[in-house]
What we know:
Low-confidence stretches: 1-10
Radius of gyration: 21 Å
Mean pLDDT: 94
Shape: globular
Helix content: 55-70%
Amino acid sequence: MSEQFTIPGHSPVPTAAKDWVKVLAKYREPNATRSSFELAATLGPFVALWAAAWWALGVSYWLTFAISCVNAAFLLRLFIIQHDCGHGSFYNNRALSDWLGRILGVLTLTPYDVWRRTHSIHHSAHGNLERRGIGDVHTMTVAEYNALSGWNKLMYRLYRHPIILFGLGPGYLFLFQNRIPLGLMSSVRYWASAMGTNAAILTGLLVMLYFGGLMPILLIFLPSTLLAATAGVWLFYVQHQFETTFWEGEEHWQLHDAALHGSSHYVMPAVLQWLSGNIGIHHVHHLYSRIPFYRLPEVVRDHASLADHNRMTIRESFANARLHLWDEGSRRLLSFRQARAL
């Protein structure tokens, strides 16, 4: 039976992860006016910076490149809005959310229906050792790694290397891998999502090429896309890849425990928190994914125990890039060096 403890003068505080669901339910309703404002406050600057970067092509290529780098932040935020559309937490109208998500998916190079399905699998299986493979960063246990051949060990080490994971990987993921519905290849619906998005992206690129030549693609489209992709992959990584994260076998895995204990609270300066759509409050998001991103700060403001749970600063997060293997004995994510010491 779950329990709660009570602080005098305050509401009972859940001690079991699943009990937070009832507490968080009151934050789930989006406000259509607020959602529309957040969309305008993100899409407006994104379009304006695109126009400014295009204008700057006639002044300085370096200025164009600099503006494009700044615009990557707004592209990242558009992805967060698309993300909330996928969870049904941006508008109450499901059709409106889905079509907005599909339009934004062209800008983020992410087929919306494909991503929505794989992300749903991520939420329903995160932390389950028997259900790895879709929508997560591939993570092996120490025992699994030790059983590999030398070649396969090398392949895994290369995959987990920061240059691959955060350097080459984001570009590959968004420019190439997203072009086909990997993991959902047998469904016509997901092929239609991928090919429809691809056709819209190609049309946009051809329009750029026709009116501006290669420079808009090379100095505006690619820099903003690659920087946003890199930031997005980093955020996704630190949200789940930290020393005391949660992994468990099917027999003992529990959805809410995985959500609360396997997701971090990534604390960032206010401007970065705004640009990343509060996605660093990730443990709350996994506990109740229907909460709009702009209401997540309310939760940690109202519930100190959640504000302090799995708290991680930017400086602390860099150490996570050195962690690669889950040790089922110590229940810790370890580096290759630490794993060898076992």
